[in-house]
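Today's session is about reading a structure prediction critically. Students often jump straight to the picture, but the first step is always the sequence itself: look for stretches that repeat, for charged clusters, for runs of hydrophobic residues. Only then move on to the predicted structure, which in these notes is written as discrete structure tokens rather than atom positions. Here is the chain we will use throughout the hour.
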Amino acid sequence: MSAFQFPHPKISSHPSWKWFILCTVLLGATMSALDVSIVNVAMPTLKTTFGVSMSVIEWVAMAYMLTLTIFLPLFGRLADIYGRSKLYNTGFVVFSIGSLFCGMSSTATAMIVSRVVQAVGAGLLQANSVALITQAFPANERGKAIGIQGAVQAISMSLGPFVGGILIASAGWRSIFYVNLPIGVLGTIAALMILPPNQKLAKKERVDYLGTAFFASGLACIVLAFNEGVKLGWGSPTIITYFVAGIVLMTLFIFTELKVEFPLIDLQLFKNTTFLLGNITGMLSYYVLFAIMFLMPFYLQKVLGYSITMTGSLLTPIPLAMAVVAPFSGQISDKYGPRVMTTSGMLVSALSCLALMFMGTSVQTPLLIAVLVMLGVGMGLFTPPNNSAIMGSAPREKLGVAGGILNMMRSLGLIFGVDISGVIFTTLEHRYLHENGIKNVEHIFSNSSIPLTIKDSAFMHGFLVVIGVLLALNLLSAFFSAANKSEYDAEAAEAAKEFAEA
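Below is the predicted structure for this chain, in token form.
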């Protein structure tokens, strides 16, 4: 072993060194989470600056989410082959370069391409963050560490709109991208100095490029179909083509994975009940969270009459409650197992949805805040133990791809939660108006010819059904979490034993 290896084995093997690794991972978590919410604030400004339509500027966000989602398993697989520390450090560099290009963009096309570069960097960070934590921490501390990471991400996301508003007002929109550069430089240096040396696989493995092509293109078609379905119509030839192509490509992907020696995603992972149910419930939880985050601004502004500023303030308690609860939830799950915390979290989220169904068109602000805090608490109780259980169920040599799948499922929950809930809501709202003699109306609340009581009733008709669906998904997730019992406990104990022996 080289005497010049850094960090030196005597230092990196010290029990406290894992906390330095966690801090390095938190820098990446802060940068990527802050960027998601900070850019959303700038969308109207970017639309005006570049002089393009809303359908074009939407791709500033869509290109980022699409790239991030479809390539997360690949980035995790590459990390398992070539080294998680190396790929994580590369993520800092690529994300910083993408941020620089975003800040320098003079056209909407340049901005969208730069966001793709940013997404590649964010994917390298996200696919490896949980894997690095799992690798560094023993099973009896893993939940706490993942909880701390979740808390930092929630805080960063909640601060994004506030920080973005200040930066845009004081230094212009380009500053929201340039702010990533010092964090990226600091993260790169920290990753080089702190993250553990890359561990080589005992057997040299190849990248499944054919499987990657089938998976990425198939998932992209499905995501685009859901995202564009509302605008183009679900029966349009384009949407039907997207769905058919997505199904065919994903079928080819599965056949490929079953035949190749080194698959992109080892489908054997899904034979593990903990891994399978954990990823399903993780996706459903983010479906619920972001469906509510998508609909609540309309409810707060259009029905309850709150200002934009007040609406933003009322939504902030959700991520803040998640940030407060997550570390404690992870720590408790380390002692007593994840099942109690994940089940409790989904039940608390279900209670918040049930309470939302009784809000109506008039509600006291303190009660509304309490319900939103309840949702944040439920998510904070659920997420760290669930993530810890998923990663604890995966073999150590596959932690990268397991982390990629985990984050991919979370991204899919976000996308489907917004798109599918939006479809259900819009369809029911327009059906209610049609039944009341009002047809072919697009901009309902800006249409002065529609009585306010009809507008509110139409909104609540769609809103209540969507919340009812979310309540059912929470209860389904609670059932899956309660059923997800023995495999994690056995593997967590074995992982702790291996860590102690090492």
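Discussion point for the tutorial: The chain has three domains: 1-206, 208-261, 265-502.
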